[in-house]
Every structure is written in structure tokens, then in C-alpha cells.
Amino acid sequence: MAKKIIIAIDGWSSCGKSTLAKELAKELGYLYVDSGAMYRAITLYFLRNHVDWTDKHEVKNALDAISLEFILNEKSQLGEMHLNGENVEYVIRDLVVAEKVSDVAAIKEVRKFAVNQQQQMGKKKGVIMDGRDIGTVVFPKAELKIFLTADNAVRVERRFKELFEKNPNVTIEEVKSNLEMRDYIDSHREESPLRQADDAILLDNTNLTADETTQKALKLVKKVMSSN
Ligand code: CDP
Question: How far apart are the CA of 198 and the centre of ligand 1, in A?
Fold first, then answer.
């Protein structure tokens, strides 16, 4: 059997990282970890509990009270985010959470909390993780790093469709401004800013279907696996 590797997928919001990661995980029989779900769940906790995240003590106390766990959904065969035992996989996708998540994810203590757990999940390899700092900080030695990108308008359209299915009141303008705001904060923050790792492979899927993106990535996986 081929040696197990770690695949890191980073990139801008809504460029199809999780779609690609889930497909690769299915193809390879690997574990998929959505690192963004962890930052979203922490943000949900902060919002629900009125945590003042500009106050270090409040952040520390809140993190001490947070337990995050991905629990397998037997039907989809994917892990779903649980916050202190509650399944929050769907509620964390809401724009209310998306409006604040980049501020929360920029906090040093929050990143330390999440990154420690992410690194534990990668100990046995055979993992595909997507996010913003996976190839640069979480797994700098990942055997394969993909930096996914797509044109802004395409990304806005994709995310709008996804959110509109759940909530027909959502507007394309608010989705666009949320994406732009998060991309700006994520790439300009002091702690682990979003950037392409030097050894990451750039994959632009503006004109590719999800399946075509997966096929391109699978070729990269095979190349890496044959040289490992
Ligand atoms: O799905 P989308 O790409 O829009 O976002 P996500 O992966 O759910 O991540 C939500 C937010 O969490 C991002 O905008 C970042 O602020 C933060 N995040 C991060 O800082 N580091 C990661 N490894 C993953 C997400």
C-alpha cells in the first residue's frame, strides 16, 4: 500500500477548497479536516456567550470552556463539527458567523488553540486539511501543498448559490462584501496570514468544474505518491 501523506489545501474564501478536499478524501480514503469549521465554531461560541475578544482574559477563559470535535456522519462519511457536544456543522456556515470569523481567527491565542489540535489530527498522516495556513504553519512539511484560487466574481457566485439555497433572503452584495472583507483580513493579519507557501502548487479553477479540479489535483497526488 502507498505510504500515507499529508495534503494541505490553502486559498481564498469560496474557491472550492472544501469541495476539492472532500473529493480527494473520498478517492484516497483519507481523513478530511475542515480547519475553517474550527474557527467558525469558536466564533459561534464567542458570539453566543458575548465574549469580548479584545480582552485576553476573556478569550483565555472562553477557550478553556470550548471543546471541539469532528464526529463522523455515517451517511456522508464526513466529520461534522461539534461544539461542546452540539452539532454546529450547519449553523456555523451562517453569514452572522462569517461576519466575525476573520476577526476571531486573527487572535494569537485562538490560532494556537486550533493549530495544536490540527497538528494532532495529522499525526498519523493520511489527512487532507484545508484552510489558510495549513501549508505554511500547521503542516510546513506536508508532502503536497495546493494553493487554490479563482476569480473574485466566480467565487462570489459560488458562495451566493450555496448560501441562497439555505436562506433566500441573502443578497449577492452581502456575500461579496463578506468575501472581500475576509480575504483582506486573512491576508493582512499579523499571525499566520494567508499566503501561498513557497513549495505550494497554484491551481486556478476559475474555468474548471469541480470534477476537473479534482482530476487535476489527483494527478498531483499521484506524482507525489510515486516519488515518496
Ligand atoms: O469556506 P471559506 O473558505 O469561505 O471559509 P472557511 O474555510 O470556513 O474559513 C472561515 C474563516 O476562518 C476564514 O475566513 C479565516 O478567517 C479563518 N481560517 C483561518 O484563519 N485559518 C484556517 N486555517 C482556516 C480558516
Answer: 20
Beta bridge partner(s), residue 87:
82
Rounded to 5 degrees, what angle do the CA atoms 66, 68, 73 make? 150
Point out which residues pair with 34 in neighbouring strands: 130
Would you tell me how many other CB atoms lie within 10 Å of the CB of residue 172? 14
Question: Structural domain boundaries of the chain?
Answer: 6-218
Query: What is the pLDDT of the chain when averaged over all its residues?
Result: 96
**Architecture of the domain spanning 6-218:** 3-Layer(aba) Sandwich (3.40)
Cα–Cα distance, 117 to 138 (Å, whole number): 10
Q: Closest ligand 1 atom to the C-alpha of 106?
A: 20
pLDDT tens, residue by residue, 36-82: 999 999 999 999 999 999 999 999 999 999 999 999 999 988 999 99
Ligand 1 midpoint to CA 209 (Å): 22
Q: Whose CA is nearest to atom 2 of ligand 1?
A: 13
Q: Enumerate residues lining ligand 1, CB below 6 A.
A: 13-14, 17-18, 35-36, 39-40, 101-102, 105, 131-134, 182, 186
d(CA 196, CA 202): 8
pTM of the model: 0.96
At residue 3, the pLDDT reads 87
Average pLDDT over residues 187-202: 98
Ligand 1 atom nearest residue 138's Cα: 23
Atom of ligand 1 nearest to the CA of 93: 8
